[in-house]
Amino acid sequence: MTEFTDEELALDPNFAARFDSDDRRPPCQLYLISPPAIDAGFVDSLAAAFDGGDVAAFQLRLKGVGDDAIAQAAAPLQKLCAERDVAFIINDSMSLAKRLGADGVHLGQGDGDPREARKLLGPSVQIGVTCHDSRHLAMEAGEAGADYVAFGAFYPTTTKETIHRPDPSILGWWTALFELPCVAIGGITPGNAAPLVKAGADFLAVSGAVWGHSDGPQAGVAAFRAVLAQE
Ligand SMILES: Cc1ncc(COP(=O)(O)OP(=O)(O)O)c(N)n1
Ligand SMILES: Cc1ncsc1CCOP(=O)(O)O
Ligand SMILES: [Mg+2]
């Protein structure tokens, strides 16, 4: 991608986009986040979710659970992801991602250095970084070799306590300047996702709207089809 000076970028945030105007980004895709706690039957819920429509990635995000317990829970889920061609991403821990041979790891700002993760995991493992509502953090993550940056929480959510509330325009700013994919997260539902897709999100990361859907996770994923196909 074309490199620009800070001055050029400050003058016109779409400066780079003019030069890369025939670069087409793939359509926005779904990135499923697990509930914070699961039971042994969850593999069936995950299979149902995958039956609902295309899912690009699944993140195992179990909070307050030790690595051994996560590793035990992960085995059938990772196998299912491999069978369905869905990237299997581990949250928080690069060492656990390495131990499990996961397809990727998601690192928050306090979860470790993406450069260290790259050294540990190698070139083909996907590394994602939480960037809240910060252009600065996103550019830092890109510099550090992340494979995607995640902005959020765009909407109120009960899945996680959140402080930052970006405007959807941060997605447009990012995609105009950088090829690196961006993920939108936080309280996303089929009803409020359209502005994020329109603004340029490459992925919608969703938990509650799928697992909490009144007709089950298959219907939860299917409900996103229309908004993802709007481009
Ligand atoms: C895709 C994606 N984006 C953001 C997060 C949040 O990560 P983090 O800030 O480390 O918070 P926890 O998820 O660890 O509570 C994520 N997990 N995935
Ligand atoms: C993990 C995380 N990081 C920011 S918001 C959020 C929760 C996403 O879950 P939901 O889709 O239920 O809001
Ligand atoms: Mg984290």
TrEMBL record:
Keywords, comma-separated and alphabetical? Magnesium, Metal-binding, Thiamine biosynthesis, Transferase
Source organism superkingdom: Bacteria
The record, for InterPro entries, names: Aldolase_TIM, ThiamineP_synth_sf, ThiamineP_synth_TenI, TMP_synthase
Reactions catalysed according to its record: 2-(2-carboxy-4-methylthiazol-5-yl)ethyl phosphate + 4-amino-2-methyl-5-(diphosphooxymethyl)pyrimidine + 2 H(+) = thiamine phosphate + CO2 + diphosphate; 4-methyl-5-(2-phosphooxyethyl)-thiazole + 4-amino-2-methyl-5-(diphosphooxymethyl)pyrimidine + H(+) = thiamine phosphate + diphosphate; 2-[(2R,5Z)-2-carboxy-4-methylthiazol-5(2H)-ylidene]ethyl phosphate + 4-amino-2-methyl-5-(diphosphooxymethyl)pyrimidine + 2 H(+) = thiamine phosphate + CO2 + diphosphate
Task: State the free-text cofactor note.
Answer: Binds 1 Mg(2+) ion per subunit.
Residues recorded as binding 4-amino-2-methyl-5-(diphosphooxymethyl)pyrimidine, renumbered to this chain, are Q59, L60, R61, L62, K63, N91, T130, K160
Say what the protein does: Condenses 4-methyl-5-(beta-hydroxyethyl)thiazole monophosphate (THZ-P) and 2-methyl-4-amino-5-hydroxymethyl pyrimidine pyrophosphate (HMP-PP) to form thiamine monophosphate (TMP).
Question: For Mg(2+), which residues are the binding ones?
Answer: D92, D111
Provide the family line.
Belongs to the thiamine-phosphate synthase family.
Species source reads Sphingobium fuliginis (strain ATCC 27551)
Pathway recorded for this protein: Cofactor biosynthesis; thiamine diphosphate biosynthesis; thiamine phosphate from 4-amino-2-methyl-5-diphosphomethylpyrimidine and 4-methyl-5-(2-phosphoethyl)-thiazole: step 1/1
EC annotation from Swiss-Prot or TrEMBL? 2.5.1.3
An example Pfam family from this entry, by short name, is: TMP-TENI
Q: Which residues bind 2-[(2R,5Z)-2-carboxy-4-methylthiazol-5(2H)-ylidene]ethyl phosphate?
A: T157, T158, T159, G187
Essential cofactor(s): Mg(2+)
Tell me which residues make up the Thiamine phosphate synthase/TenI domain.
30-210
Q: What's the name of the protein?
A: Thiamine-phosphate synthase
**Which CDD domains does this entry report, sorted A to Z?**
TMP_TenI
